Amino acid sequence: MNDNTLMRKRKRPLDMILRAAIYISASVSVLLLLGMIGYVFVKGIQTVNLSFLTSVTSTLEGTVGVAGNLLNTAYIIIITLLIATPLGVGSAIYLNEYARPGRIVSMIEFTTETLSGIPSIIFGLFGMVFFGESLGLGYSLLTGSFTLTLMVLPLITRNTQEALRTVPESYRSGALGMGSTKWHMIRTILLPSSMPGIVTGIILALGRIVGESAALLFTAGSDYRLPRFSGGFADNVERLLTKTTESGGTLTIELYLQMQKGQYETAFGIGCVLIIIVLILNLLTKLAANKLRPV
């Protein structure tokens, strides 16, 4: 009886070596992640407390906090994703499901890949000149958000395209054969089936938004003050909306500035907050994807 079959395949030395190399590479990746997270937490977790998260840095009051930077980071994340996600997913749907393969589609895909490789400092210069000076937005959260939209749009588009391509062609032909319209098929079959890949693109974009600093230095500024709320609800809402047109430094900007000042404990504390925010946002996004995934 031949033992070299699919059921009883002989273990070759080269296969065993490659398998061991794969496990070692995966282990090194996990250890690097755990090592970085552990090092940052050991250095900065003692700085993180309720006062640190709910106050702003003030020499007169003797406080050190990142509440204003937390709010600015939330503004940047929400505005950027609200613009980039529909545009990126919509562009991917058009390129993958509606556009005919040809030079135009190839050019668009090549342009998208090129945009994803441009250094963030170039986006910052463009955002400062175009959004800040030409459109008159100046140093503001809107300028920073529009700039980051350009940065993460290729990431969401390409990941959504790859996710749509993983859906079997039989799903499309089956839905259309049963009388479904193309848009109904996309909305009820393709998008739910490709949701894990789309969520992966959003998570990658989220990580880039939260961790970006170079582009925001030129566009959003570094102001860390909180809005001054009044007694009326309408006035408070208006103040929050007005905040988008003002300068605002995110957590990464404040971390950079604290490192420049030599305040390493505060910088590591901000690093802890950033890691916690990224983990929470990733978990929430995964939960949302699981809810949207078809049973």
Tags for this model:
295 residues, mainly alpha
Structure characterization notes:
This protein has 295 residues and is an all-alpha fold. The chain contains 13 helices and two strands, in the order H-H-E-E-H-H-H-H-H-H-H-H-H-H-H. It has helices spanning 13-44, 50-54, 67-98, 103-116, 120-134, 141-165, 169-177, 182-193, 195-211, 214-219, 233-243, 251-261, 264-292; strands spanning 56-58, 63-66. The chain has a two-stranded antiparallel ribbon. Helix 1 (13-44) crosses helix 13 (264-292), helix 4 (103-116) crosses helix 6 and helix 12 packs antiparallel against helix 13 (264-292). The radius of gyration is 24 Å and the shape is globular. The protein starts with 12 loop residues before the first helix and ends with a helix. The model has no long low-confidence stretch (mean pLDDT 85).
